[in-house]
Design brief:
This protein has 507 residues and is an alpha/beta fold. Helix content is 48%, strand content 10%. It folds into 2 domains: 184 residues, no CATH class; 284 residues, Alkaline Phosphatase, subunit A (3-Layer(aba) Sandwich). The structure holds zinc ion. The site of zinc ion has 5 residues, from loops.
């Protein structure tokens, strides 16, 4: 009797433990889901007692393996397993994998893994079949009815479960990543078939040209001193008097990919249609005979979930410094791009386009800047988050200024253009989400900085440009047409270029 009870108890704990762990990790416990899931998971032990070991093994594979991966990720990085990490795991090479293991497989993880394996061994081999229970027909019928109701409940609340049940989330995530790869492969086979019409430059002498574009991340201009913010978040840019600060520029969407896909190509909207495949800003400048650089601190997704990275990889010199599986959370500081920027500037090629894609002011603001930039602080949780965002703006100011300083030393025809992919809704007010979201977009998520510096040689070689740029400082402009502005600014033209779509257009 005692042996039978302890066997039932062991089966119960083995089967339902991942459910309880999941509930523990959620902000609040869903008792109805937990009960329904426990009953449904236990049912096969009673209905199909002969498949006892096999079913225990299935539980190990489909519940324990993802739970182990998620908990292990939390132990290592203090964060749940996310799609960036999963992408890393799926597309890792043996070399990277062994590097990863030697760097992170510490004692804590080893003990945790051994305990998990021991527990799974006990669950599979030390529990006994419930065939000997000989439940009466009535009891069996009752149990089956309860199971049916539980399963119905799970089915009806699938959307909620998908959102909060970690093992299921991990499998759905993997499915999505593989789907993204198939989508992108389909696009990749079509990329590069488009030929631009001949591209001409109106700079007529042989003065070297160095064009620098910095793509910021999640920066709302309302948090920049340069745009009138009350905190001194851009002390270095603010003290310059040679910047053209455009006051009225918005992003097409409040998300990185959908915003940049249109800004950096001839596409008018975020759809995977022919216009996106017409090639990107990198293709265009390659075709125009430029030496192109793509220096990025954004997660590359192995080129696989990221059209922007795919475009960037077609530069003459692509460098992605953020190889971390855990994506933006543990991204290097943007200053680690600076040696690459210096190298690009020293390249003796006569015509260069250098695009720098920052991690900028992406969420987890505190992870974006070193301690020496911890300048502002708040008194409440929310005002502290705002302060951390402002610290990241302060750091961003120093990164842009350092790049501008290096560029100034170069001489020649050059410009530096900074804009942000989209903004961010960060304020102390109760309705600010401290986020950006294409589903619930607010004005701060679209209001972006757009800042231009022109070298003295540029101004001298193109007398009409500065006055017309100055005239347009306040015009409303959406960066979905960004590529036309860049072509104009670079003094290039061909039939793909539509002059009226440039922010600098005379009008
Ligand atoms: Zn973004």
């Amino acid at each position: 009797m005692y042996a039978q009870l302890s066997n039932i108890l062991l089966i119960f704990i083995y089967t339902t433990l991942p459910i309880w762990i999941n509930e523990y990790l959620q902000p609040s416990t869903d008792w109805i889901f937990a009960a329904a899931a426990c009953i449904s998971l236990l049912a096969p032990f009673i209905v199909l007692p002969r498949l006892h070991h096999f079913y225990s093994l299935l539980l190990a594979l489909f519940l324990y393996l993802p739970t182990w991966a998620d908990l292990g990720h939390r132990l290592l990085f203090d964060a749940p397993l996310n799609s960036s990490s999963l992408t890393g795991v799926i597309y890792t090479t043996p070399g990277e994998a062994s590097e990863f293991f030697s760097a992170f497989f510490n004692g804590k993880i080893l003990v945790f893994t051994l305990l998990t394996l021991l527990w799974i061994y006990i669950g599979i081999f030390k529990t006994r079949s419930l065939a000997s229970l000989h439940l009466s027909g009535l009891l069996k019928a009752f149990f089956l009815s309860v199971t049916a109701v539980s399963m119905l409940h799970l089915w009806a609340s699938y959307v909620i479960i998908e959102y909060r049940f970690i093992p299921l989330q991990i499998y759905l995530n993997i499915r999505q990543i593989l789907q993204n790869e198939r989508d992108l492969k389909a696009i990749q086979t079509q990329l590069g078939e488009y030929n631009f019409a001949p591209i001409y430059s109106d700079f007529k002498d042989n003065t070297p040209q160095t064009f620098v574009i910095i793509i910021g991340e999640s920066l709302h201009r309302g948090h920049m001193q340069l745009y009138g913010y009350h905190r001194p978040t851009t002390p270095q840019l603010s003290q310059r008097d040679d910047l053209l600060v455009f006051a009225n520029v918005t992003a097409p969407r409040a998300a990185t990919l959908s915003s940049l896909n249109t800004a950096l190509s001839f596409a008018d909207s975020y759809t995977f249609d022919g216009s996106i495949l017409k090639g990107s800003i990198i293709d265009y400048f390659n075709a125009a005979g430029f030496t192109t650089y793509w220096l990025s601190n954004q997660y590359q997704g192995g080129y696989l979930d990221n059209l922007i990275a795919l475009w960037g990889s077609k530069a003459t010199h692509p460098h992605f410094i953020n190889h971390d599986y855990w994506g933006e959370r543990q991204a290097p500081y943007d200053e680690q791009l600076l040696p690459h920027v210096r190298q690009a500037l020293q390249d003796s090629a006569p015509r260069k386009l250098i695009i720098i894609h920052l991690m900028g002011n992406h969420i987890q603001y505190k992870q974006r800047y070193p301690e020496s930039f911890e300048h502002f602080s708040g008194t409440t949780d929310k005002s502290q988050t705002v302060a951390e965002y402002d610290n990241s703006v302060l750091y961003n100011d120093s990164i842009i200024s350092q790049i501008l300083h290096e560029l100034e030393q170069q001489g020649g025809i050059s410009y530096l253009l900074y804009f942000s992919d989209h903004g961010q809704d960060v304020s102390d007010s109760p309705d600010s989400c401290l986020c950006h979201s294409p589903e619930a977009t607010t004005p701060p998520m679209l209001e972006i900085p757009f800042i231009l510096w022109l070298s003295p040689s540029y101004i001298q070689h193109r007398a009409d440009f500065l006055p017309r740029a100055r005239r347009n400082l306040n015009i409303p402009y959406n960066t979905k047409d960004f590529i036309h502005s860049v072509i104009d600014l670079s003094n290039l033209h061909n039939t793909d270029y539509i002059p009226n779509k440039s922010i600098f257009a005379p009008r």
